[in-house]
Amino acid sequence: MAGRAYDLGLDILDRQVLDSEGVPCGNVDDIELSYDRGRSAPPAVTAILLSPGAYGPRLGRIGSVIAALWRRLHPASDPKPLRVDWSKITKLDYAIHLSVTRHEAGLTRAEDWVRDNLIARIPGA
């Protein structure tokens, strides 16, 4: 995947993420860029970010509210968006395909929190 030019808005943002088993893991909410090659070269994509903490700032005022609620409800004192390193992406087509399972990529953190803190409190769940 390295070395190719992408239109970030069309090719990556808001695309469905599928793990190595084809299980949906969410959508790309933001992109992490780096200038490893110096400021004279264009930035390179180093990771994709998923979670309300990542897409909130893109949505303006209502997004700020969503991101604030996400931070407030999150168990970590300073929650970071879910991050998937660009090297774990194997294919880009209608979706973004990962070379690892969602558990190996760490994409179950939010799912585990919802299960443990919300679903578990529902009687009979």
Helical segment count: 5
Provide the structure class: alpha+beta
Rounded average pLDDT? 80
Quaternary status: single chain
End-to-end distance, in Å?
42 Å
The arrangement of helices and strands along the chain is HEEEEHHEEEHH
Q: In words, what does this structure look like?
A:
This protein is of the alpha+beta class. Helices cover about 30% and strands about 25% of the residues. It has helices at about 10, 50-55, 60-75, 100-105, 110-115, and strands at about 15-20, 25, 30-35, 45-50, 80-85, 90, 95-100. The strands form 2 sheets. The chain has a 4-stranded mixed beta sheet, with no helix packed on it. Strands 3-4-5 form a 3-stranded antiparallel beta sheet. A hairpin with a 5-residue loop joins strand 1 (about 15-20) and strand 2.
Q: What's this, in brief?
A:
By secondary structure, the chain is of the alpha+beta class. It is 28% helix and 25% strand.
Search tags:
125 residues; alpha+beta; 4-stranded mixed β-sheet; 3-stranded antiparallel β-sheet; 28% helix; globular
Annotate the secondary structure layout.
Layout: H1 8-12, E1 16-18, E2 24-27, E3 30-34, E4 44-50, H2 52-55, H3 61-73, E5 82-85, E6 89-92, E7 95-98, H4 102-105, H5 109-117
